[in-house]
Amino acid sequence: MRSLSGRFHAFVSRFQVAFLSDRVYTNKQKVVNQLRPVATYEEIEQQRGDKSILYVDVRSPSEFAKSTIPGAVNVPVLDDEDRKTVGTLYVAGKIDEAKSHGIQVISPKLPEMFSLFQEYTKAYDQVVIFCSRGGFRSNSIFSLLKSLGMNVYRMEGGYKNYRSTINKLIPVMFEKVQFVTLYGNTGTGKTAILDELKKRGANVLDLEACANNRGSVFGGVGLKKKQPHNQKMFESLLAESAAGWKEPLVVFTEGESKRIGQAVLPPSLIDAMQRGLNLNIEASLDYRIGQIKKDYLHSNEAELLAALDRLKSYLNEARVDGYKEQVRQHEFDAVIADLLVKYYDPRYNFNKKEFVAIFRNEDAAATAEAILEWMKQRNGSERK
User: pLDDT tens digit string along 78-92?
Assistant: First the structure.
């Protein structure tokens, strides 16, 4: 079975052909059987076929952490400090000194890097090296490995070239999608329902997972990776999510504000969601309290207290301090209930939307089954 990252890149190729025919290699005279050693992202994906490809990001660890190609691995040529030093020398016009420093830093790493790339080339049909713009970092390691007879490739234009492809995809990739968006107050189990829908083979777009944030002052609490994804990584993961969708393109998602953590929903996605169907998810207060505890209470107490402090921008200090004291006493139910009823519920205006159906959720699996059955009956009645 093809990996998720493999499906993502196949998806990119499919959309390039469908929507970007004026910019990609669709003319038979332009397509060659053999991939050039130095090729653009579009060329690599156009000629992927069933090949397994590993993208190797040789940028610094901090650059990689901010955003990269989904499925890529990081083999930094320069660490963050050395990258800063080399960059400073380049800006100062000391080109030879910058290159010399780079070579001194890279040389001790070469045996380990060579061993890594030997493993990669055995495990994958194609290993593609890239850096920020396809310059010194990727070219230095690429040239060395090629001189040693290793079958590797280099992405022309680097990560910037990849981003240009994503920038062209985002405005068009949702055009044929019918979204079914779940709305409901905090804690009604919308994300759990999406998980159950996905288990049953439905197409799902988990926006909170793409953003690595839940969209509130508690957005990062309890998440393994604390740093929310930036806009670039968010958009790449939107495309990666779409890679697994199957026809018909009916996609379930959760109603969110335009901003989730550090990411902003693209206008094309907002437009597509507005064209779709809206479902209202309701649940008892007890269920909602239990869901919140399940999602957040595996975090440490200090993280919860810090999140509560951020509420002081919206609530008076005495009220927040009262919540904090209750958390220290492990009176979680009381804090959650008060926040839900008196803070979160009044803030949401999703009730202004038109809903085609309302579902009462007390069990995510049962609710997912009910939604799929409702969709089946609705589609059947529309065809009559």
Answer: 999 999 998 898 889
The pLDDT of residue 53 is above 90: yes
Q: Residues 99, 224: one domain? A: no
Q: Give the relative orientation of helices 158-169 and 231-243 as an angle to the nearest 10 degrees.
A: 60
Count up the domains in the chain and report the number. Answer: 2
* CA atoms of 364 and 279, how far apart (whole Å): 14
How far is CA 58 from each of CA 108, 134, 335, rounded to the nearest angstrom? Answer: 16, 10, 47
Phi, psi of 74 (to 5 degrees): -105, 120
Same domain, 196 and 336: yes
Task: Examine the domain organization and report whether 356 and 239 are in the same domain.
Answer: yes
Q: Which of 8-17, 24-33, 83-92, 265-274 has the lowest mean pLDDT?
A: 24-33
Beta-carbon contacts of 287 under 8 Å, excluding residues fewer than 6 positions away, are: 187, 188, 189, 361, 362
CATH classification of the domain holding 270: 3.40.50
The alpha helices in the chain, defined as continuous H runs, are 4-19, 41-46, 61-66, 80-91, 95-106, 110-123, 136-147, 158-169, 190-199, 207-211, 231-243, 267-275, 285-296, 301-310, 317-328, 332-339, 345-347, 364-383
Q: Do residues 339 and 216 make contact, with C-beta atoms less than 8 angstroms apart?
A: no
Q: CA 374 to CA 167: how far, in whole Å?
A: 36
Q: Which residues pair with 178 in a beta bridge?
A: 250
**The pair of three-digit structure tokens given for residue 17, joined into one six-digit string:** 């052909």
| Res. 19: pLDDT tops 50 | no
Query: Model pTM?
Result: 0.81
Provide φ and ψ at 282, rounded to 5°.
-115, 160
223 shares a domain with 93: no
* 123 and 62 within one domain: yes
Give residue 37's domain range.
4-169
Per the prediction, the chain carries an average pLDDT of 86
Q: Tokens 């197409």 — which residue?
A: 203
Integer Cα distance of 148 and 152 in angstroms: 11
DSSP 350: G
Distance CA 373, CA 384 (A): 17
- What's the CATH number where 140 sits? 3.40.250.10
